[in-house]
Amino acid sequence: MKPESIRRFDLFFLASLALLAVGFFISFDATVASIQAQTAAKGLQVGSGFVVGLFVVVLAINLLLWFLVSRKGTTIAKWLIVLLVLIDLIGIPSLISGDLTAPKMISLLRIALETVAIAFLFKADAKAWFAGSSADDAGPAV
Description:
This protein is an all-alpha fold and 142 residues long. It is built from seven helices and no strands. Mean pLDDT is 90; it is low at 135-142.
């Protein structure tokens, strides 16, 4: 049976992915315009299909990592999620500079949810989960 910490990780991490989708849809037009401007300067023509494809790939990678952590107890996936959240944390100064728009607020909330989610991966019952035993097998706390 899955430990409570992993269930809470599921809740917070999947909520952060839902916010990722909301943020994507809210800022879709601005993102497409920005990417088209950047690629046009280099002589490339990129359409909205590229942006959608990129979002699908990012979402698929996150769902795969969630699956590997939540269902399989894979330690390397846990550390990959931690690494991705650390990269997100590096971007916080750019999010809080300038006007605080709805997409920026959604991104900040998403990063907060991810940070809470990974905190649950380091609880004692989660450590037992990654070690391959259930929380019940971990024995009494000493």
